[in-house]
Amino acid sequence: MKKVVYNSCFGGFSISKECAEWMADRGNVECEEGLRKHRPDWEFGSLSKTPRHDAILVLAVEALGEKASGMSANLKIREITADRYYIDEYDGSESVVTPKDIKWTLV
Q1: Where are the domains of the chain?
Q2: Which helix (H) or strand (E) holds 62?
Q3: pLDDT, tens digit, for every residue of 4-46?
Q4: Which end of the chain is more exposed for a tag (fewer CB within 10 A), N or C?
């Protein structure tokens, strides 16, 4: 089983400063750089280089629970058996889609 982090509410994916610190302490380079640069515009949330299935991100959400979520976020984990997924998003609310979830039209 693989695990994927997604935002389960409207507002958008973001992690808290506490989550960024937790991840940086365990070697996540993106969080290390963000904390070092003290980017005030980064609500310790928009991870652009860290994939949602990143082991450190998954562990952070599991360890911190609600405290991992940034402003206007509610991070959850979905376990998948597939070897691929994508994040479907509408107004910041996300779901994890795997090939098994797609209702194909056969021709």
Answers
A1: 2-101
A2: helix 55-64
A3: 999 999 999 999 989 999 999 999 999 998 888 766 655 557 7
A4: C
